Amino acid sequence: MAAEEATSAEGTTTEVGLPPSLLDTISDRFKRQQRQSFSRIVVAAKVTDKFGQGDSVLQMVNKVNAAFPKDSGVTGFGLLQSGTCLLLLECVPDAIPMFVRLLVDGSGEGGQGELMSGMRVVAQSEDVGQQYFLPFEMLLVNLPKEGDIDLEQEEGDLTTAGSNMYVKLMQVGQAMAGKGAYDDKFKTTHASFLPTSDRVRAFSLCSGFFSVDEFISTLCNPVHVRLESDLVWPMEERLVY
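The chain above was modelled as a monomer; its predicted structure follows.
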């Protein structure tokens, strides 16, 4: 009900509106502040030779941009190294489900035309106030090798491991504010903040992080809850409180 009835001491009845919800309050504040809301996602994956220079990912990003023409577009980068790829995207919230589904459809995982495998969501943020990065590009880098990495032993736990990498990537984004394009000095300037191919592979192999399929089924698809009371006959009578 949009309103409730209240009776005063004189016996007259007036309508009392319900107070605004928390969502209404936040939406109104965003409008006053002219603040936008974005989502950010980081995906680690292994790639095959068929992945090439990541043209398939660029096509996915173009599809997302075409689906949301009135928005500011996808920002971020794909960090392509030997046998691995790290994808960082910033976009409007509704674009994230579309992109991860395109990843699944376009990866060819498990088939002869496989481009990517072991896709894991290392980090994801919602209600981000601004986009740090430049329009999305695929970047080819060759960082020093680290060898075998045990994320839990090195960082203490997987949450810390993912968070530490994510924070370093955000520091790269803050440092790039105001620049017009990814330049040739990107990998040397930010090398200490970028994950190596060995580290990306360690995240991709770690079952402690959502696979892209698990991410979709848990956070993107509608929730279907089947109650025990729905499975019995005759149907139970409604409780009267």
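Confidence is low (pLDDT under 50) at residues 1-6.
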